[in-house]
Amino acid sequence: MKRRIFLFLFLGAFSFLFSNFSWSQVIELTYASPYAPNHPYSIADQNWIAKIEKETGGKVKIKPYWAGTLISSRESMAELAKGAADLAFITPIYEKAGVDITKTILDFFRGTPPETNMKIYWEIFRKFPEFRKEYEKVKILGISAGYPMHLMTTKKPVTSISDFKGLRLRITGDVMMRTMKELGAEPVGMPVVEVYEALSKGIIHGVILGGTDYKAFKLAEVVKYATENFLQERGVYASRAMNLNSWAKLPPDVQKVFEANIDFWSLEGYRQLLKPEEEGKELARKNGIQFVKMVPEGLTKYAEVFDKEVVKEAKRLDEKGLPGTKILNEVKRLQKELTGK
Description:
globular, five-stranded mixed β-sheet, six-stranded mixed β-sheet, D-Maltodextrin-Binding Protein, domain 2
């Protein structure tokens, strides 16, 4: 009889301990990024990981894999959806298909600060189901706002529209390509890694890039002038996401922590980008690069041409049965509402 009682108590205690262990075991997740661990985006990721692990009381542990170990830049969203990792830095603008709205609206956000553009992004995302459909296979947990890039030249300073004549400029984006051509420049497309050599050999006479690139791509060694108020402002795109199956397995309390940190992850990425931006500009000044400004009438002309091309892009979405013009009009409405301009 005593043996039976002892066995019953032993099994009961074992069952309790086992069930308690199962309930409190650590949730281990993987995070994949195409960037090196010292990149500003990766520093933001590490800060987010530490915050998540702390706010879940150690219930969640996230192991990062950097530099494209688990995921590529070209098809990151598709790879995440298939389970390449639990979480990832995604670049949907490089996906082969299914992200027409994402690619087009990058040029819709001109004239408002990145922090404001992030708010506008979520309003658009909530309002237009066609936009949400582009991300139906992943759970978005963070967005990125591009910092304004400015004009850098080697041949001469650019302070008026007439100065563009005869300049070959490395340009990105269909809207900007057509805009610069109409303004008199010769737009050229090339990978950013080829820019330094192309500038040093005179193959191109300028680029539109960010202040961080003076250091990152050694542009401070070849650029002579910078038109600091001639900006190409890029919009907002989803950049951090989670595999849907991995998301569904998370307990509700953990999901709440993740969702409560969407804004933190998004803004932290932008904050980390600003640090090397200022460092790069300081290096440019030390190297003797002359910072100039374009005259107001030149900026006005640039804005007119650019906005005209954006309207054309919106209409191209309309022709595909997507709400391009409606989204553009809503972005403009929100810009006025949130900035008072």
